[in-house]
Amino acid sequence: MAIAGVVHTQEQYGLRPEAKNFPMMLVLSFVYPCNALCPHCPYTNSNIRKEYRDAPYMSEATFKRIADESGPHGAYLRISGGGEPMLHPKGTELLVYAKAKGCKIGLITNGSLFTEENARALLEAGVDMIEFSVDACDPETYAVVRKGLEWETLVANVKMMLRLRAELRSSSKIVASCVNQKGVDVDAVEKFWVEGHGIDYLIKRKFLTWGINTELKTDKSADPIAYLNEDEVPCPFIFERLNIDSRGNVMVCGYDISAHTSMGNVNSESIATIWHGPGFRYYREKHLGGHGKDIGLCSGCPDWKYRSWQHNYWKVVKNAEESRLKKFATLGEHDDFQSHQDNR
User: Fold this and answer.
1) Using alpha carbons only, what angle is made at residue 118 by residues 125 and 109, rounded to the nearest 5 degrees?
2) What are 132-144's pLDDT values in tens digits?
3) What are phi and psi of 85, to 5 degrees?
4) Are 231 and 290 contacting, i.e. CB atoms less than 8 angstroms apart?
5) Cα–Cα distances in Å, from 193 out to 111, 134, 285?
6) Is the pTM here over 0.85, yes or no?
7) Which string of b and e fits 2-24 if b means at least 16 CB within 10 Å?
């Protein structure tokens, strides 16, 4: 299937070569508290945060256990979850720790809590990708889609991050993301942040329900075109990534943000063991056999059709890195910059 010239399927399915021994990505619910009330967020529209009052932040011990095992594999730790990651009391310190262990880091943030000090620390550590969730290109729209946050703070912090990156010649990619929802002109958002401010790439996200925003989807989504035919194509998530909540519990995929599934717990089992365990094997065999919809969780997933085997996070990483290198080359600093990185 190809939509708008983009291929979303592939000839063969199964564990990606990079994921045969260990997941390519571990999506961490690093924090649950948030300083925003975004109307499209499933956590804003549910009681999940209240259910994690016993573990609002991933503990230092759990995070370091994940980083220690993931580092030798060069796996991505995608710092996301139910709230704003920079609210974590030891957020910067832990991300720097994970980088030192060999992990790749993808930080997703609303950008409201950066200071010169923590931004510099992240860039010096070479955090691989810092993603600002912007969803707008003007203060009026921003006040609606990013309720509770200040437009001026976002713009100032993006500018600061780009300035510091140039100063430090950091290898970090700086991108932004926008949910394609009614009332938001994603092309204008792209022009504002990429052309106007010099970020490396804009991620245009589908309006996903996560099983919670279902009633909102019909009214809010501005891009309902499916990527996959779920009756024929397996969901890629179970073949490349897993999700871990603040308690260390492993969910089968990102759709299960309420943690109804439990593949194991990283505090008592290795991630590699869980990744190759009977839980994931069951899901993969069902999907590869064309019977994914026999699974209750998958049959009720309204977002499966919006996954893609080709148009995904790995494409964003590639495109953002190409853009970053072009910027340094344009500045006439590319050779010195690359040499600096090679000698780190």
Assistant:
1) 90
2) 999 999 999 999 9
3) -55, -35
4) yes
5) 14, 9, 42
6) yes
7) eeeeeebbeeebebbeebeebbb
